[in-house]
Specification:
single chain, about 375 residues, Aminopeptidase, Elongation Factor Tu (Ef-tu), domain 3, six-stranded antiparallel barrel, globular, disordered N terminus
């Protein structure tokens, strides 16, 4: 059951400032679809560089900022950088475009959305078309499916489409942009999980500005290709070979309509970060996170995951013979839509929880149950 776990009166301490909020907005508005994350990674690294000693980018685009690179004991804090999108799959002779998913894109929200088609010649503007309600009168309503949603870029022939630089394999993202709603929520596409990339970068900023010296190497990891199977995390875990990994991702705010709390759990935006229980979550590391929350009066919620977390936690946990790993999630409304929504205070508190958890880890700390 989700609830505030702290008995003390909680006083919210803001973390995000005007400069970091401006970066967050720019970062969310930039497209970084799975397999094509490079532009977003460049933005992220540019923001992070003042707060780290060095950085590394692997062959597929996972970016890593490193503090204390010579330390033998390595701690990872991680998020994933990629967003769901579409691929051009088929172009009709009349110049209409049919698509397949790149990640878990929701076909039901597509009709009437504005999109950007990414080509070697630049962005081509287009829309997901849909027949007018007037033309469906008296007919059995047909729901949007992968077989009937289509994109219209204003062309009338296949040749005209191809002349714009569009071909099978071009990636497509939605046009919707970041906003602040009621001075309470951040809203935008791809908060899953560029909010995570933002939060781990803010942890690095806090460590730098507060002049905190860590006794271990800290690897701030923004992984690619999570949305199609945790692939970036798999690769970078084997490269870094960390001793500990703290992963952050989003989870469902289940307080909105049409979500079954019996199956999905009871989690709400504004009530704090979510600490997970799952086979991949190492219990002693999880206890350290909870103690850091309690000691620093950070509100938090609890979630159980059957079998796997479905996040990069699983990739780190089962790499390199087993890496103690834990998951801190950000409650999010309307996942995999263009209006993903997170509470401002939850963002601050995830940053606080990761920050204070790092300050609790000792050099060479052994998290094993039996020694």
């Amino acid at each position: 059951m989700a609830k505030k776990e702290n008995k003390k009166e909680q006083k919210h301490i803001p973390v995000v400032n005007k400069k970091s909020l401006a970066f967050f907005e720019k970062y969310i508005n930039n497209a970084a679809p799975t397999g094509f994350e490079s532009e977003g990674q460049k933005l992220w690294l540019e923001y992070l560089k003042p707060y780290i000693d060095t950085h590394y980018v692997d062959n597929y685009g996972t970016a890593v900022g490193i503090i204390n690179p010579d330390a033998k004991y390595k701690v990872v804090i991680e998020a994933h950088a990629d967003e769901i999108s579409w691929f051009v799959n088929y172009i009709t002779k009349d110049g209409l475009i049919y698509v397949i998913r790149n990640g878990g894109s929701d076909h039901q929200i597509a009709p009437s959305k504005r999109v950007n088609i990414h080509t070697d010649k630049g962005i081509v503007k287009a829309v997901f078309g849909w027949p007018a309600i007037h033309t469906r009168a008296g007919e059995k309503e047909e729901a949007p499916t992968l077989k009937n949603i289509f994109i219209d870029c204003g062309c009338v022939t296949k040749e005209e489409v191809e002349a714009l630089g569009i071909h099978v394999g071009c990636v497509i993202t939605y046009e919707d942009e970041f906003m602040v709603l009621n001075d309470r929520y951040y809203v935008g596409r791809a908060l899953d999980n560029r909010a995570g990339g933002f939060m781990i970068a803010e942890v690095a900023r806090l460590l730098h500005e507060n002049k905190k010296k860590l006794p271990f190497g800290l690897y701030i990891v923004n992984s690619v290709q999570e949305e199609i199977g945790l692939r970036g995390a798999e690769m970078i875990a084997n490269y870094i070979k960390p001793n500990v990994a703290i992963v952050t991702d989003v989870t469902h705010d289940t307080s909105t309509p049409m979500i079954n709390k019996i199956t999905q759990g009871d989690l709400s935006s504004g009530k704090g970060p979510v600490v997970s229980y799952a086979p991949a979550v190492q219990n002693n590391l999880n206890r350290l996170l909870i103690k850091a929350a309690e000691d620093n009066n950070i509100p938090f919620q609890r979630q159980a995951s059957s079998r796997s977390t479905g996040t990069d936690t699983d990739a780190f946990a089962y790499s390199n013979g087993g890496v103690p790993s834990a998951l801190i999630s950000l409650p999010l409304r309307y996942m995999h839509t263009t209006v993903e929504m997170v509470h401002k205070e939850d963002v601050d508190n995830v940053i606080h929880l990761i920050y204070h958890s790092l300050l609790s880890i000792k050099d060479g700390q052994d998290f094993r149950y039996i020694k």
